[in-house]
Amino acid sequence: MHGIDEKTMSELLLVLDLAGTFVFAISGGMLGVQRRLDVFGVLFLSFAASSAGGITRDLLIGAVPPAAIADWRYLVVAVGAGLLTFLAYLRMARLHTAILVSDAVGLALFTVAGAEKALNYGINPVMAALLGMLTGIGGGVVRDLLVARTPPVLERGLYAVPALVGAMLVVVGEGLNWPIVPTAVVAAAICFVVRLLAIRKGWNLPVAQSESRGERNGQSG
């Protein structure tokens, strides 16, 4: 791929995966602390948040056993990030903001890693972009479901769309023979920025009108 040998590509994917694992584990750990879970609950949520997306991706593309299970470094990074969050949470003055930022970083890193790995396994570009998006949103979905919170991807607010944009940039870069590392950095940065702007400015996708205000008022009477 673009003059990069297989070993270098494998190392790049590992770096992206571990970086995404770390920040998603932090987001899972902070949510666990916010929900008053004990240390085991925080660590479990950290691992689930940091691994679900990657495991799903690997199973779908036939990379078995999944890297998060086969490579001990994923567990060490996830548990380390969870412990760090558990021990240092009192210094985090704004847990909600910290969770959103770390979640956006994890979304960007996992999206790029997911798309790159899918392409590396010979998946067609359209499905590679969708797998990149799935890798990015998977951990957040599982994390939120475990604490009975509606995942952001199901609520109003752009979550999957920034991931899809980032993954599409990776795929386009592959098709146009762009350098892999700069393309990955730009794709991750755009995904991250779009997600944060969506949070800050309240960007939403259109929502269908199920009934009029008058009908609702009539039924309530």
Word description of this protein:
The chain has 221 residues and is an all-alpha fold. The protein has nine helices and no strands. It has one domain. The radius of gyration is 18 Å and the shape is globular.
Mean pLDDT: 88
Low-pLDDT ranges: none
Strand content: under 5%
Shape: globular
Strand tally is 0
Instruction: Give the helices and strands as they follow along the chain.
Output: HHHHHHHHH
Observed structural traits:
single chain, globular
How would the blueprint of this fold be written?
Blueprint: H1 6-34, H2 39-61, H3 67-70, H4 72-88, H5 95-120, H6 125-146, H7 160-175, H8 180-201, H9 213-220
Helix pairs in contact: 1-2, 1-4, 1-5, 2-4, 2-5, 2-6, 5-6, 5-7, 5-8, 6-7, 7-8
Overview in brief:
It contains 9 helices and no strands. By secondary structure, the protein is mainly α. The protein is globular, with a radius of gyration of 18 Å.
